[in-house]
Amino acid sequence: MKVATSIGATEGRGLVSGGEAEFRILYNRHYDAIHSYFLRRTGAASAPDLTAEVFLVAWRRIGDVPRGEETLLWLYGVAANVAAHQRRSTARSARLDTRLRSVSTNGSVELEPQVVRRAEYDRVLAAAERLRPADQEILRLAAWEELPHDQISRLLGCSVAAVDQRLHRARKRLAKEYRKGHAPGHPQKEEGGRR
Predict the structure, then answer these.
(1) What are the chain's domains?
(2) Under a CB-based contact definition with an 8 Å cutoff, are residues 194 and 132 in contact?
(3) Which segments of the chain have a pLDDT < 70?
(4) Distance CA 162, CA 2 (A)
(5) Do 148 and 160 meet the contact criterion of CB atoms below 8 Å apart?
(6) Dist. CA 34–CA 144, nearest whole Å
(7) 9, 101, 147, 184 — which has fewest CB within 10 A?
């Protein structure tokens, strides 16, 4: 876990302000949860930067951050927005890269790098990747973030009954993909796409 330090305090400029002290508590309490959120969604390379973006928003809006158990939900909401922005940015970059690669500079053909799945991905993660993004997210919130259904409902802006139903359906789809994806002679999906 990273520990927030006060710039003013480390440089001997006096006491920590109320907002800064509040932020340090928030940061120290929730850093691991937000960092893990991004590790599971984006990987180790971008998780620290995306986590920092979430806490930058929290710092800038420290007066708007709810207190108590709502704090982590609010941070997850910010994290979801940051992740969505990162996905859009990555998609724009990929489209630009594709367009640039289609323009021949000197007639030489550049080989595309092979996408190799990491050996440690297990069958459940492979099946989950084939699900719709909404199914993936609700399963992540319930399983990885271990949020109770009432908190998921507040985060997604729907009723607890809707969360129960969505989770039930997402779990059924996951089980179906798990069985279907590993049937004998069934072709594997390429990463990032659907069949």
Answers:
(1) 1-102 (1.10.1740.10), 120-195 (1.10.10.10)
(2) no
(3) 1-17, 99-122, 181-195
(4) 36
(5) no
(6) 11
(7) 184
CA 53 to CA 159: how far, in whole Å?
Answer: 29
- Give the whole-angstrom CA distance, residue 145 versus residue 142: 6
Neighbouring CB atoms inside 10 A of 147's CB total 20
- The whole-number pLDDT of residue 12 equals 40
Token couple for 36: 């893990």
pTM as predicted: 0.55
Both tokens assigned to 154: 């507040």
Q: Which residues of 9-42 are buried (b: 16+ CB within 10 A; e: fewer)?
A: eeeeeeeeeeebebbbebbeebbeebbebbbebb
Q: What is the mean pLDDT of the chain?
A: 78
